Amino acid sequence: MKYVTIIDIARELGISKSTVSRALSGDTHNVKSETMKKIIDTAHRMGYQRNEQAVNLRQQHTKTVGIIIPDAMTPFFMTFIQHAQKELKKRGYQTIVTVANEDYEAEYEYLMMLTQSRVDGILMSVCHKDKNIEAYQQVMNRGIPIVFFDRTVEGLDASQVRMDDEIMSYFMVETLIRMGKRHIIHLAGPSYVIPAVNRHIGYRQALEKFHLPYDERYVLEGGLKFHEGAQAMQNFLAQGLEFDAVFCFTETTMVGAKNVLQNMHYRIPEDVAICTVSGTELCTFVHPTISAVEQPLKQMAIEASRLLTQQIEDPESPRENIVLRGEIVLRESTK
Amino acid sequence: MKYVTIIDIARELGISKSTVSRALSGDTHNVKSETMKKIIDTAHRMGYQRNEQAVNLRQQHTKTVGIIIPDAMTPFFMTFIQHAQKELKKRGYQTIVTVANEDYEAEYEYLMMLTQSRVDGILMSVCHKDKNIEAYQQVMNRGIPIVFFDRTVEGLDASQVRMDDEIMSYFMVETLIRMGKRHIIHLAGPSYVIPAVNRHIGYRQALEKFHLPYDERYVLEGGLKFHEGAQAMQNFLAQGLEFDAVFCFTETTMVGAKNVLQNMHYRIPEDVAICTVSGTELCTFVHPTISAVEQPLKQMAIEASRLLTQQIEDPESPRENIVLRGEIVLRESTK
DNA sequence: GTGAAAGCGCTAACAG
DNA sequence: CTGTTAGCGCTTTCAC
């Protein structure tokens, strides 16, 4: 047989499986230290590994949380996941991560899959702020807590953790302006993504503060994928308008846009600065341009994990709405 | 209660849970189509979701495979995972992925964790070709199949899937030479990583074929992480040697090296071409330089998944050693 | 065609 | 301190 069970080791020692179970779960209070030792030893010798499935079934939980992210090509969410996994592990939870790939129908499927796997709770960043709202509500009604992060939703009684996109976006654009940029494109994200609309607001406010005109021709629908970002950039170029900076909603579309620019032999960042608010190690290294804020990402993962486990362990614990306000850190000066 | 069970629906209908079970698992042969329909309907109405945990415990498998990768910052492995997940799902398996982060001790921990979770099999790309060999052997001995991909190992009776690194590396360097490059650095990977040594061989062979000298000063230990690649590049620069191309073992170190080059105002690719063999969408977009081979990555994921599930379902199925030979596809000409 | 009963590996009362 | 018993949700003989 593949695995040794507590019965095997009980038989080996001629004692009952209850005692073995107690010993193996570290119940020093109810088992003599002598038998304790004996049990631990033979368990070790026989290569015992407790069957989590059985424990879960018995205890009516799985000690695992599901994570749903919209995208995995970009280091942003991957970094989040690594931090979250670490934090969750520390709190005694396994994780199972799924990638919806910006498709809310796939997201729905994964949500169902996760509840079917009886995860104790879910951490998610949504593809679309409206489309699956009732589904989220339903799983929450069944007593499975969901904590939303980054790409949050509205009108749900759930904990959420996000960045202060508006202000960070504002600072970022302000930085560009102070660098002397005057014609700043905004490669915006879709309006069904909350951080995207907030960043757009921040962009607009910065322009206003410096009395720069807000020109709709400089606001592009940049989508969420590489090719969408590239396409949008290309469309803009076709207009023949003057520009000296591009402020992007996300790393993904930024990379797409940058690629187009490079192919057209624009020098970056001399001719045009290109940036986003996100900040991961890879981002820093990849883009010879200004990037931003590393720290809140880790913090976001930690807070979200904390909130979720808290709510799993005490369903009555209050919902929180955390807005992180990391400092803008310019990763590379453009002299 | 959170979930409805077959007992609930049996009670609702005043029948036995056995019948419900049979109906729900589609046993048309042993349950009257009339009751069948009735059961399916109420199951649906009550929002029944079968408890996989219980099924697994009963059937002595989990229908999940573990995946261990060394790195998640780079799109390479993430892309692999997406393809593998898709293929595995098609074959009825869930996946649980863990990232060792180039640390073979963490890798060991995850391996243990996965067997403890009773995964039916494991897909892995190792951190170190030797360090955990006995551990791999042990889990295989317990009847849990492992299929190695990309970063393979030697001397184990396991199926493996990898690229023909030698020949692809050879082609890549040949391409650089045909472009007129004469002083090609090789930012090599560590010797405890099999593809790294193979790529080094390919590099050397290409130089030989074109009667270019093999100079050890042009072969750098580039490590596996961003900062290691950057450091190596910096060290090389300090030597003051002439160079016009860099052939990197991996995306990660390539990005690090490229960053250094850019900071020093080298024009890429005019002054120096920089490339690697890997090929993912992000890679393509990010690097204004030559990259390569997209297709084998997907193929690798599919083959590895096939091999693994095959071996799970029939432990006696023969081991295979697949070497993929994708075409070199230049993603961007450097004119 | 359907039901009763056993059991997957484990924990948790409840007795001693 | 230790053993006995029941049961988590499900599948699978074995009867009827």
List the strand order in the largest sheet of chain A. 2-1-3-4-5-10
The CATH architecture category of the largest domain in chain A equals: 3-Layer(aba) Sandwich
CATH topology of the largest domain in chain A: Rossmann fold
Content of β-strand of chain A: 5-15%
The CATH superfamily name of the largest domain in chain A is Response regulator
Look at the helices and sheets of chain A and give the structural class: alpha/beta
User: What gap, in angstroms, lies between the N and C termini of chain A?
Assistant: 67 Å
Structural domain count of chain A? 3
The amount of helix of chain A comes to 40-55%
Biggest sheet architecture of chain A? 6 strands, parallel
Number of strands of chain A: 10
- Count of alpha/pi helices of chain A: 13
What is the CATH top level name of the largest domain in chain A?
A: Alpha Beta
Return Rg of chain A in Å.
25 Å
Mean pLDDT of chain A: 88
Major interchain interface with per-chain residue totals = A-B, 47 and 48 residues
Q: How are helices and strands ordered from N to C of chain A?
A: HHHHEHEHEHEEHEHEHEHEHHE
Poorly predicted parts of chain A: 281-291, 330-335
Looking at how many chains there are and whether they match, the oligomeric state comes to homodimer
Q: Any idea what the shape of chain A is?
A: elongated
